[in-house]
Amino acid sequence: MPMREKIPGQKKGKDSMESKRSRRRQRRLLPVQVLYTTCQQVFADCGPGIVPNPDKIQLLKTVLDGISGADVGVNPNMPFFREQKTEGLPTITYLHIHECDKFSIGIFCLPPSGVLPLHNHPEMTVFSKLLFGTMHIKSLDWVNGIPSNKVPDGDSSNANGALSAEARLAKVRVDSDFIAPCDTSILYPTDGGNMHCFTAVTQCAVLDVLGPPYNDAEGRHCAYYIEHPFDRISANGISIAEEEREGYEWLQERDKPEGLTVYGVPYSGPPIAK
């Protein structure tokens, strides 16, 4: 059989062919698969309190910014998002996509008026992408160097599941409505609004990535808080201008709020290969 002549400029060889196959595979990957493999890359060298480098933060943010509800198999017509006739807090559904010791991926499904009360993310970097709907987000960070202060005797919160008689000062970072589509929000172990509260104005879904995930055995316990206005508790000489005081609150740790139900459901959207 005669040998074929090499066409000028033609690239041949195993490396070139593998590169082309890799590019084709990447184009065929489902968005949720791209999210999973990106998380593996971003959190590979991270651990509790260790934030991925800025390039990796931006890489994961870009992937999440491009994901829609359809990409992860959720839409407003699903039963999780129906308005609930109840006197207490509406039930929230969590769709578990993946969890390992490095990161977790899941979707919170909130019906109208659903609330994830104010809680923390110890030693975590967290990415939250609002897939659809309108949500009010309030987030705060601790003010370092300020000692805890006693909540006044007789305050009703002391009998409302409080775990401590003292509260710690925090600064409000965000307190506003977000309407999808919007950019992914990111919080860090000590800034960016590590403690936050989600309130569904309409039915909405939030795609959450936590690195690393909660782990009680390793000390990453989800703590909840009661909020107190700045002026309610003695500031012990703390000097904050009158016009800025609304941007500060005292937070008192509490039990998990009574009536809060987050119902775990297996993820049934597009599959990921692990």
Description of the structure:
The protein is 14% helix and 32% strand. It is built from 3 helices and 13 strands; from the N terminus they run αααβββββββββββββ. Helix 2 packs antiparallel against helix 3. A hairpin with a 4-residue loop joins strand 1 (92-99) and strand 2 (104-110). The protein is of the alpha+beta class. The protein is globular and about 70 Å long. The strands form 2 sheets. Strands 3, 5, 6, 7, 9, 11 and 12 form a 7-stranded antiparallel β-sheet that branches. Strands 8-4-10-2-1-13 form a 6-stranded mixed β-sheet, with helices on one face.
Name the helicity range. 10-25%
Q: Gyration radius, to the nearest Å?
A: 23 Å
Query: What is the count of helical runs?
Result: 3
Largest sheet: 7 strands, antiparallel
Instruction: Give the mean pLDDT.
Output: 89
SSE arrangement, N to C: HHHEEEEEEEEEEEEE
Quote the distance from N terminus to C terminus.
Answer: 45 Å
Q: What sort of overall outline do the alpha carbons produce when their principal axes are compared?
A: globular
> Would you tell me the structural class of the helices and strands?
alpha+beta
Task: Provide the β-strand percentage band.
Answer: 25-35%
Question: Quick one: how many beta strands?
Answer: 13
Contiguous uncertain segments of 5+ residues:
1-12
